[in-house]
Automatic annotation (TrEMBL), chain A:
UniProt KW ATP-binding keyword: yes
Source superkingdom: Bacteria
Protein name: Monosaccharide ABC transporter ATP-binding protein (CUT2 family)
Domain annotation ABC transporter: ranges: 6-243
TrEMBL record, chain B:
Membrane protein topology class: Multi-pass membrane protein
Keywords assigned: Cell membrane, Membrane, Transmembrane, Transmembrane helix
The name this protein goes by in its record: Monosaccharide ABC transporter membrane protein (CUT2 family)
Keyword Metal-binding found: no
């Protein structure tokens, strides 16, 4: 089993009176794909945003490479080597593909933006993802299709020399071929030694590509188990009921005894 | 296609041709309108319109508005608005005039360059202060820009009036008036115009080639995306309103030098003129889109119409109607173009 690169211990997060994450323990290992599954509203995106520094956590700690870290914003996360593809993509519509991919981390030559260098790097990354549908890297993102936008968001995340990549439903809008590409990419990133977190509602994809599956149920971590010890129906039960046989959260009546 | 080619092309890449890009740019069309106007007036009254004097006065009269509009371009690209620029201009001019009187110990008519430079610094500081106030209220306190700058529009004008009991200061260093106000360099070029051109070039450079400019577009396009990309949105917005305030301060000093007066009552529509110029130039009120070049063209369309109508003896009021029509038409065309492209 490989080393944990990122771990969360007892993380809690509330939005006002709504307690969204309860005492979450979660581990991401280098060289592995950890799938994060759960029903709509289970708290998956919130968990990702807490790791990315978008939402401050209320309590609990985050360890990176075994050391406690404080992530106060996206810059801190990026500095640690954490990249995120958000569920809503978070692209600036009026900017073109290159500008989006380098947003916040523009390359400079002297005092000025190094457009040529950024364009070349963007094209290389897109080519390595075998993106053929994006006509020009200088078209504004607003004129791309949903799937193309998603590809740009993914390319933006893999452009950097990162250690952990969190992908929040990266294949939701993609066609068959492009989904294949992204799943292959997910495996490839893990083989390169990155810790990869994949959020998906597609059980076949999750079972195929992941090494471990973490299931969130109503904001609690129901189970975090190796994929090979689980089958399709067990995962579905964990997602919908929070437990499956001996696995998952204890029955409420068992707890009271 | 070879593998190397494919990498360079990032998968099938076609660059839109220069022609296609030109036709797609709003700036191109509005630029054509400006050229057409010049040609029409030039043909109608070649001896009066195409003279050095006409061109000089045209440029001088637009210099102050141009400086305000450059700042306004940044603000509107972020999706904001600044109604206070005209009042901040007056306030900066008033404080500057007062300061120059104060260091001269009475009337500053005979003051030298030391006093004049001090006046300039005071004007810039005064404008910057209003800009910071606008920026903090908008970006940090999250009050809508329309409301904040409507408030500071009144406040800055009121404060300027209080400083001299509501009347104008008309005694200003004569050196400042003859050099900056209506002096020329290289034989023909009004100094006021040189100042405006330099500031505009700096603005264009800042907006189109630097990280600051890139982030301005990003914040106006999708503030949340900008935040998640690690851009300090609050700080960036504050600095943009600060920049606009500083430019209004410079404009206040330019106005002082040109008119030789604090002109309290002369700038009540500067804000709207600047907004109209920026929007005519193709900058989107929804944010995320715009150019400084477009703004320059947008500043000149009303000015050329006004000059031209004067020369062919059409009443001034027609200019107001014509500018209104051009403004609405420009925005309408822009929307049509966007719609057809997004389909
Ligand atoms: N910014 C916020 N303010 C208030 N409540 C929020 C906020 N973000 C998320 N929530 C709440 O937190 C809960 C978890 O939301 P989250 O987006 O993490 O779910 P999810 O597991 O990603 O769901 P999905 O599969 O639909 O994407 C929801 O009940 C949601 O209403
Ligand atoms: Mg989600």
């Amino acid at each position: 089993m490989s080393e944990p690169i990122l771990s969360l211990r007892g993380v809690n997060k509330s939005f006002g009176p709504v307690h969204v994450l309860h005492d979450i323990d979660f581990t991401v290992r280098a060289g592995e794909v950890t799938a994060l599954v759960g029903d709509n509203g289970a708290g998956k995106s919130t968990l990702v945003k807490c790791i990315a520094g978008i939402h401050p956590v209320d309590s609990g700690e985050i360890l990176f490479d075994g050391k406690p870290v404080h992530i106060h914003g996206p810059r801190d996360a990026a500095a640690l080597g954490i990249e995120v593809v958000y569920q809503d993509l978070a692209l600036a519509d009026n900017l073109d593909v290159v500008q989006n991919m380098f947003l916040g981390r523009e390359r400079l030559s002297g005092f000025l933006l190094d457009e040529a260098e950024m364009e070349l790097a963007a094209r290389r990354t897109l080519a390595s993802l075998s993106v053929r549908t994006v006509k020009s890297v200088r078209t504004p993102v607003s004129s791309l299709s949903g799937g193309q936008r998603q590809t740009v968001a993914i390319a933006k995340a893999v452009l950097w020399d990162s250690k952990v990549v969190l992908l929040d439903e990266p294949t939701a809008a993609l066609g068959v071929a492009q989904t294949r590409q992204v799943l292959d990419l997910v495996r490839r990133l893990a083989e390169q030694g990155l810790g990869v977190v994949l959020i998906s509602h597609n059980m076949n994809d999750v079972l195929e590509v992941s090494d471990r599956i973490a299931t969130l149920y109503l904001g609690r971590m129901a189970a975090e188990l190796p994929t090979r010890e689980l089958n399709h129906s067990q995962v579905v039960e964990l997602i919908t009921a929070g437990r499956s046989g001996d696995l998952g959260l204890a029955r409420p009546d068992v707890v009271t005894i | 296609m070879t593998a190397e080619e494919e990498v360079v092309n990032g998968g099938a890449i076609e660059k839109p041709t220069l022609g296609a890009r030109l036709l797609g740019a709003n700036t191109f069309w509005i630029g054509l309108v400006l050229i057409a106007l010049c040609v029409v007036f030039g043909v109608l009254e070649p001896t009066a319109f195409l003279t050095l004097f006409t061109v000089q006065t045209l440029l001088i009269e637009t210099a102050v508005l141009l400086v305000l509009s450059v700042g306004m371009t940044f603000v509107i690209i972020t999706g904001g608005i600044d109604l206070s620029v005209g009042s901040v201009l007056i306030f900066s001019g008033m404080v500057s005039a007062k300061a120059m009187e104060w260091v001269s110990g009475g009337s500053s008519t005979n003051a030298g360059w030391g006093v004049i430079l001090f006046g300039l610094v005071v004007a810039i500081v005064a404008g910057t202060a209003w800009g910071i106030l606008n920026g903090l209220l908008i970006a940090a306190a999250k009050i809508p820009p329309l409301i904040v700058t409507l408030g500071t529009l009144g406040a800055a004008l009121g404060a300027a009036s209080l400083l001299n009991n509501g009347s104008d200061i008309r005694t200003l260093p004569s050196t400042m008036r003859t050099t900056i106000g209506y002096g020329t360099s290289f034989g023909y070029v009004p100094n006021l115009v040189i100042v405006a051109v330099v500031l505009t070039l700096i603005g264009a450079w800042l907006l189109h080639t630097t990280v600051f400019g890139r982030h301005t577009f990003a914040v106006g396009s999708n503030a949340e995306a900008a935040r998640r990309s690690g851009i300090g949105v609050t700080r960036h917005l504050t600095s943009i309103y600060t920049l606009t305030g500083a430019l209004a301060g410079v404009a206040g000093f330019m106005s002082l030098a040109y008119f030789g007066s604090t002109t309290i009552s002369a700038h009540s529509t500067d804000n709207l003129n600047a907004i109209a110029a920026v929007v005519m130039g193709g900058t989107s009120l929804f944010g995320g889109v715009g150019t400084v070049l477009g703004t320059v063209i947008g500043v000149f369309i009303p000015a050329v119409l006004k000059k031209g109508f004067n020369i062919i003896h059409v009443q001034d009021f027609w200019q107001m109607i014509a500018v209104g029509a051009v403004l609405i038409a420009a925005v309408w065309f822009d929307q049509q173009r966007r719609r057809s492209r997004n389909r």
